């Protein structure tokens, strides 16, 4: 059975690295990247099955980055997470453009995240 390839995107390196380690330990093939544009560029190469992304990042926000990734990898699953209130408006704008992403609140417990991914 092929392991799912997961890319974790967060400008906070510790969060991205820690989630990637946890996911690798849980049987996924996970890697961490640290910006929305880096996620887009790496998605072209790695072709992940799933991208888990923070929403609020300095270069481009996670929602816009995921829309770009969805454009090149239409079957890629997307899971967003955020600890900031401004996310609601960004999600509403994405929905109006035809993109409906699932979002988890930060901090997310690793067991809850893994349970969501294997469901």
Outline the structure in words.
By secondary structure, this protein is an alpha/beta fold. The chain has a single domain, classed as Response regulator (Rossmann fold). Helices cover 45% and strands 21% of the residues. A five-stranded parallel β-sheet has the order 2-1-3-4-5, with helices on both faces. Strand 3, helix 3 and strand 4 form a beta-alpha-beta unit. The two termini are 17 Å apart.
Give a brief description.
By secondary structure, the protein is α/β, with parallel strands linked by helices. The chain contains 5 helices and 5 strands; from the N terminus they run βαβαβαβαβα. It has helices spanning 13-25, 36-46, 62-72, 87-96, 110-118; strands at residues 5-9, 29-33, 50-54, 77-82, 102-105.
């Amino acid at each position: 059975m092929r392991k799912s390839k997961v890319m974790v995107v967060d400008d906070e390196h510790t969060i991205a690295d820690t989630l990637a380690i946890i996911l690798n330990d849980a049987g996924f093939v996970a890697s961490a990247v640290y910006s929305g544009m880096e996620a887009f560029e790496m998605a072209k190469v790695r072709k992940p099955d799933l991208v888990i992304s923070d929403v609020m990042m300095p270069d481009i926000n996670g929602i816009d980055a995921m829309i770009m990734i969805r454009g090149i990898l239409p079957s890629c699953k997307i899971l967003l997470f955020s600890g900031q209130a401004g996310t609601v408006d960004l999600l509403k704008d994405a929905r109006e453009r035809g993109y409906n992403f699932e979002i988890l609140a930060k901090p997310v417990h690793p067991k809850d995240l893994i349970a969501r991914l294997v469901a």
